């Protein structure tokens, strides 16, 4: 039999529940009138911010086959236009949220650490994107909104603050509502179907293949994705020492000395490829004459 203490109501818990229900109601009330308008993404972020503390947010829409479209962005001083341009042009291929949605068909609410490979924070991608943005933590909604189309609602914390388990539970409790709102908003959208992203995936897979052996190419691909030496060894079924040897040979052939140089070589060759239709982007990139000194 329950004691009187067990049956006693907690007024503070009731008040907290009332506050969250009111915030959820306001989220839906804000978003419904903005459906299919340019205001939708901003209203969605403002509604989420009323429930969970958010220091930075962006919304990326991946239509079928197309490059990502940045439909909402808050701009910290630390985030440069060049960084965002590189992300939209090709660096997104290395993003753990993007890979989760496209390769593993994982949708829902995730912390970055739940999706990223081991030692991802040591990768050049992390340094050039997350750390330069001042992020100490990120979580996001991955929402499928159509055939081969999805949305990434990215929420960031800065200044050494992290999302608590309670805040994560709150976001996950909103998942069904946020998913339906996003599906309604992007229901009539469709991509070009030209497979631009598919070509970029091929470019990433083939990067360096004109100069490297097949195994060296595989190692470099995993390094670009942020995998540690140990993780690369486990994925390829080879020893750590063999991974180090392949990476050393690959770096020498590509004339780079660090993961940072490798990362920017990949992005520069990809962004200069233009109308890419196959093969290693380094072929045309290295064939271009160096600019003349004035």
Write the layout of secondary structure elements.
Elements: H1 4-7, H2 11-31, H3 40-49, E1 56-62, E2 69-73, H4 81-89, H5 96-103, E3 108-111, H6 112-115, H7 124-131, E4 135-146, E5 149-158, H8 165-173, H9 175-186, H10 196-206, H11 214-224, H12 229-236, H13 240-254, H14 259-271, H15 281-287
Antiparallel strand pairs: 1-2, 1-5, 3-4, 4-5
Helix pairs in contact: 2-3, 11-13, 12-13, 14-15
What does this entry show, briefly?
This protein has 294 residues and is an alpha+beta fold. It contains 15 helices and 5 strands.
Mean pLDDT: 86
Rough outline: globular
The amount of helix comes to: 40-55%
What is the distance, rounded to the nearest whole angstrom, between the alpha carbons of the first and last residues?
A: 90 Å
CATH fold description of the largest domain:
Beta-Lactamase
CATH superfamily placement of the largest domain: GAF domain
In total, the number of domains comes to 2
Number of strands: 5
User: Can you write the helix and strand succession as a string?
Assistant: HHHEEHHEHHEEHHHHHHHH
| Structure classification | alpha+beta
The CATH class of the largest domain is identified as Alpha Beta
Helical segment tally? 15
CATH architecture of the largest domain: 2-Layer Sandwich
% residues in beta strands: 5-15%
* Main β-sheet description: 5 strands, antiparallel
Low-confidence runs of at least 5 consecutive residues: none
């Amino acid at each position: 039999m329950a004691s009187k203490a067990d049956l006693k109501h907690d007024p503070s818990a009731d008040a907290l529940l009332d506050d969250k229900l009111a915030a959820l109601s306001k989220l839906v009330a804000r978003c419904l009138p903005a459906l299919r308008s340019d205001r939708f993404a901003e209203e969605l972020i403002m509604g989420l911010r009323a429930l969970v503390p958010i220091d930075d947010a962006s919304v990326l829409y991946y239509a079928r086959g197309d490059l990502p479209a940045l439909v909402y962005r808050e701009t910290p001083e630390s985030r440069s236009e060049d960084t965002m341009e590189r992300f939209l042009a090709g660096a997104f291929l290395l993003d753990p949220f993007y890979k989760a949605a496209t390769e593993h068909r994982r949708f829902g609410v995730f912390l970055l650490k739940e999706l990223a490979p081991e030692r991802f924070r040591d990768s050049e991608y992390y340094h050039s994107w997350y750390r330069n943005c001042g992020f100490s933590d990120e979580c996001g909604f991955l929402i499928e909104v159509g055939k081969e189309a999805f949305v990434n609602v990215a929420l960031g914390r800065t200044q050494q603050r992290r999302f608590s388990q309670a805040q994560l539970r709150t976001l996950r409790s909103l998942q069904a509502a946020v998913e339906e709102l996003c599906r309604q908003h992007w229901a009539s959208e469709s991509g070009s179907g030209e497979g631009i992203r598919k070509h970029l995936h091929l470019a990433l897979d083939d990067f360096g293949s004109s100069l490297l052996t097949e195994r060296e190419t595989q190692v470099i691909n995993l390094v670009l994705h942020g995998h540690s030496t140990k993780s690369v060894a486990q994925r390829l079924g080879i020893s750590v020492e063999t991974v180090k040897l392949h990476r050393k040979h690959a770096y020498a052939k590509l004339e780079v000395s660090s993961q940072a140089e490798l990362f920017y070589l990949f992005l520069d060759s990809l962004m200069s490829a233009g109308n890419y239709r196959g093969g290693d982007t380094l072929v045309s990139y290295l064939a271009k004459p160096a600019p003349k000194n004035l």
